[in-house]
Structure formats: structure tokens, C-alpha cells
Amino acid sequence: PASLPNIPNDVDASVTELSLSWNQISAIRQTDFNDKYPNLFSVDLKYNRVTTVEKGCFRGTVLSYVNLEGNLLDYFPDFCEVNQTLRTLLIKMNSLGTIKEEDIGCLVLLEVLYMGFNPIAPLPDLSQILPSLTVLGLGGITFDCCRDIAWMKGITILYVDAYPCQSPTSFIGIFWMEITRYQLEETYCSGEILYF
């Protein structure tokens, strides 16, 4: 079968789950979802070619689960239209370089976030930005293991590589589970200016 280049516009309005994985979809536009699918709670768009998600998409849905794994996104998409329903977001294996509070701060009910295998640096304190977050997947990402990431030790379920520290040298090759929150809190970050 031919791969879909776009979100189809002939989807039944009563759809609850939509799986469009392994296609050639490159853009998600407001006209693809807004006010069309009031019962839609799950969208699977993994392994497409998505580079663009228009701001304001998904209005009028009840999306609880979104999978954008294995696409080409280099920015964190806007999910504020579903901030009262979105609980699970899979966005690993894209090209996300930065995540800012203003990108994700509206996702107050998000519980599960997988965004491993993205070149994210630095990583903000997601425990402060996403108050409902209980599961965080960051496999395939290395860190400056210092006080800036000490918050990660407080996440209920955290998936990271066994040896995720790229610096400082004292943590390189140390198993993540052996590093304590206190050790991280007491470690200055690379490039941090110290005042005496």
C-alpha cells in the first residue's frame, strides 16, 4: 500500500483512536484535527517524517495519548489545546535540541513523557514544570551530572542509561543508581561561575 503523505481528511468523526504510523506524513496542521474528532483520545504518528506541528492543533479532541516517536521534530510541539486531557506523550528519537518552560508549562496533567534519544541540552527541571509527571524516559541522552539535574532523582519512574554522565570526570563510568541526589546537589555544573 502507498504511504500517506498527509493526515487523511476522510476519517470518521466518531473515531476514538487513530493510528497513522509508518507513513510519510511531514506536517500536522490545525485543519487536520481541530473541532473534527470530539471522541479522539489516542493518536499514533510514530515513524513518519513530521517536522511541523502547527501551534494550536488538536482543539476539540480529548487526546490522552500522543505518539510522535521517530519523526524529525527539532522543537517541542504545542499541546496546550489538550492540556486538560493529555497524560502520555512519546516524542523520543526526534531532533529536539532544547525544551523551555514555555513549551511545556501548560501540560499540567502530563504523567508520562518519553523523550530519549534526542540531543537535548540543557534539560530544565521538569519536576517543577510538569507537576503530574511520574514517568520520564531519557534513555540515549548523556548529562552534565551536577546540581542542575538533581531533580531527576525525585522522579517516581526514571529511565536513563546505566552510565549517563558525560561530566564531571568523577561521575564518568559510575552507575546512575550509585549516584545520590545529595552528590548531584553538591556538584557544580560545567561552565558554572563560582563566586567566593
Question: How would you explain this protein's 3D organization?
Answer:
This protein is mainly beta. It has helices spanning 30-33, 101-104, 126-129, 181-185; strands at residues 17-19, 27-28, 42-44, 52-53, 65-67, 88-90, 112-114, 135-137, 143-144, 157-159, 165-167. Strands 1-3-5-6-7-8-10 form a seven-stranded parallel sheet, with no helix packed on it. A two-stranded parallel sheet has the order 2-4. A two-stranded parallel sheet has the order 9-11. Helix 3 (126-129) links the parallel strand 7 (112-114) and strand 8 (135-137). The chain is elongated. The chain starts with 16 loop residues before the first strand and ends in an 11-residue tail after the last helix. The model has no long low-confidence stretch (mean pLDDT 95).
Instruction: Enumerate how many helices there are, as a single number.
Output: 4
Percentage of residues in helical conformation? under 10%
The major pleated sheet works out as: 7 strands, parallel
Strand content: 15-25%
List low-confidence stretches. none
Large-scale geometry: elongated
Instruction: Specify the structural class.
Output: mainly beta
Number of strands: 11
Give the overall pLDDT as a whole number. Answer: 95
What integer value in Å does the Rg equal? 18 Å
Oligomer: single chain
Placed side by side, the strands forming the largest sheet appear as 1-3-5-6-7-8-10
Task: Note the gap between the termini.
Answer: 67 Å
Helix-strand topology string: EEHEEEEHEHEEEEH
